[in-house]
Amino acid sequence: MFAAMNGATKTIWKTVVFAGAMLGTAACGGKKAEPTTPAATDTSGDSGNTADTPDTADPCAGDPCGGDPCADPCGGRPRGVSDEGDTGRGFILS
Amino acid sequence: MTATHVTAVDDVREDLFDPVSAWWLSGTPLEAEHQRLMRRRNVPIPWELSTVGELSPAERSRLAETWTRRSAAEYLAVSTFAVLAIDLVAAGAPADVLSLCMRAGIDEVRHAELCLRMIEIYGGKQVMPPPGMSSLPDDPERPKLHQALANTMLVSCVSETYATTVLTATRDLTTDPVAHAVLTSIYSDEVMHARLGWSYLRYGLERGGQGAIDAAAAMVPIALRGVANVVERERPVGEVTEKVRGHGLMTPAEERIIYSSCVREVLVPGFEALGIPCGSALDDYGEAWAHAA
After folding, report:
1. B57: domain range?
2. What is the mean pLDDT of chain B?
3. Is the residue at B275 inside a domain?
4. Whole-Å CA distances, A91 to A2, B155, B164, B165, B228
5. Looking at chain B, which residue has its C-alpha nearest residue A58?
6. Is B104 in contact with B194 (CB distance < 8 Å)?
7. Domain for residue B242, yes or no?
8. Residue B7 pLDDT level (bands cut at 50, 70, 90)
9. Residues of A with CB below 8 A from B170's CB?
10. What pTM was computed for the model?
11. Higher confidence at residue A61 or residue B193?
């Protein structure tokens, strides 16, 4: 059991976490291709971010929906009744 | 390639990829396209090799109940990834993150089908999974990037990464060919479901700066507790005999040890490598918690 466990965590560390989070690299997106469409030239309101580090401001700021609640992508999102964070995820083992 | 050859290959594939739980389908023309979606990542299961006949009625009942719970969890996970996709779109996630998230939802449909077939094998019944909706936390007040990162951590980094760990350990001890193949099929998908989270976490933290790191740190105890709640939950009645173990089950005590190991050797090192402080996580799920059952 413990031998199996040790092998499991090592495998998952390498194949999932290390590979997924690219822990062996300095930053993600390093080999990104040049964009094929022209970049916007209007820099008014530019937050100072570069093309490789897009503006992280909340896309829903400034009421992009024009007051129409039916078009609001930031409105109430569907959720179940529990906020315990314990259902619908993971694998119930036994 | 001749037309005859194409037909022969297609015949073989049709034979390999019969519907897993045909009774669960809608009976509409959607079935054909559904089958095409399912077979894209399908792993053939040697259903005829099941050793269920060697089990006692009590052992079969124990396994049927476990697979019933697994089917419910997998079915509900369809809505989990659907809700996560909403959060990711709201945060402006890139195309590859979105497509992998949507594919994860499709994978969960297939997992639910596999679980229903396993219920039928052990219990002799066709059991529909209960309806439900994911209970992913939602805080409309926080930035959308933080919301997406938080639920990605909960769903993908913690839950799915733990799922891959427990599936690896369980599969290695599973001797029944059908159960082994089903667990392998699910495991192969869960690896990508988990990797999706770690990749997006890295991506989001690089763009969100300290605020995103703080939001992620606040989510660590919530995400770890969410999975711990599942591990600690009461289990079906019935002994986990050696034969039952060979069909892909562990005891609750063993699961605690796996989760504790996963927190210590996989999750916390991963979060900390990305600069996310994990507070008391190692103590919370350390030796005392692991052996509390």
Report:
1. 53-128+137-218+232-250
2. 90
3. no
4. 20, 11, 9, 10, 12
5. B143
6. no
7. yes
8. very low
9. 93
10. 0.80
11. B193
